Amino acid sequence: MQTIHPNTLPAEWEKHQFTLLAFPYEGRDWPGKFHAVKWAFVEIIRKVSTHEDVLLLVRSALHQEKVKGMLVQAHVDLKKVKFLIQDTNRGWMRDSGPIIVKDAKGGRTALQFGFNGWAKYGNYRKDLYTPQTVAESLKIPLRKVIYKDRDVVLEGGAIDSNGQGTLITTAECLLHPSIQVRNPGFSKLDYEEIFASYLGIKKTIWLGAGIEGDDTHGHVDDICRFVNVNTVVACREINPKDKNHKILEANLEQLRSETIQNGEKLNVIEIPMPSRLDFEDLRLPASYVNFLITNASVLVPTFNDKNDYKALRILREVFPDRDVIGISAIDLIWGLGTLHCLSHEIPH
């Protein structure tokens, strides 16, 4: 497939105009914990808006006024929050929001990948309008991602980029032949052509599987993340009895053997996993690498765990010019995702 447009997917640590969030308005994703989650969300907005503006989706004008009241109670500067009225099925902006790419002159385009509820849930139709709403607000063009005359389904949590042409993803998420299949029949080469044509990717690193309890079936943003052009932080589970042990050891071995787009060896920094976290009959996909990067900070999910301080120390070392701040995610993780899953950067 020929290159459609010479775009680049910026790294998440590059300059942002906004962080995109969607304020939750019902408790489907957090049964029994919804009230606590709303206030946890207010705290996320407060922390993000300290360093950059927030583009906040709300369900209706009435919902907007209720949210404003909560933000005022928490002393959030409303001048730092731009509201957009857009009803959604869920608030996971990483996956249903647009992926914004830039051309050689700095012009931005919002890419609309298909979204099908992670090939698991049927109620996602409202989420399909989110990219258009965001693109219109930003006054930038919206382009559908099409390959072989088909809409390409891809969530933002399934990929991570160094902003220079290298991308990491997992075979479990994109290539499994029967479980949560996004694009039936697509091969590695098909995906790599799509990544090259729409995201400017020159090198794709394929990991194996994601962590246990991940509702998305293998999103990379619970496994490893780029923290600079040639460095990733990657999760390790040292307990050999834990199911994540073999999964993450295999991914670590793969990462240590990899290079980035220019042939330079990939630098791999290990970060621990929190202790196993269960609620009701589910194992929750708790991970420290589901962090959110802003223009001057890194917000890191924490779990009242002995490894919280170790993860924060590691991330402070790799982000020396940003404030690294722990955000309690004990309630958020009941929705099977945390800070990175809920947000999407809007590059400047």
Question: What tags apply to this protein structure?
Answer:
single chain, 348 residues, alpha/beta, L-arginine/glycine Amidinotransferase, Chain A
Can you describe this structure in just a few lines?
By secondary structure, this protein is of the alpha/beta class.
How would you characterize this protein structure?
By secondary structure, this protein is an alpha/beta fold. It has a single domain, classed as L-arginine/glycine Amidinotransferase, Chain A, CATH 3.75.10. 25% of the residues lie in helices and 24% in strands. The protein is built from nine helices and 20 strands. It has helices at 34-49, 61-73, 93-96, 130-138, 171-175, 188-199, 243-256, 308-318, 339-342; strands at 16-22, 53-58, 81-85, 99-102, 108-112, 142-144, 146-147, 150-151, 160-161, 166-170, 203-207, 224-228, 231-236, 267-272, 278-279, 282-283, 292-293, 297-302, 323-328, 344-347. The strands form seven sheets. A four-stranded mixed β-sheet has the order 3-2-1-20, with helices on both faces. Strands 4-5-6 form a three-stranded mixed β-sheet, covered by helices on one side. The longest helix has 16 residues, at 34-49. The chain starts with 15 loop residues before the first strand and ends with a strand. The model has no long low-confidence stretch (mean pLDDT 96).
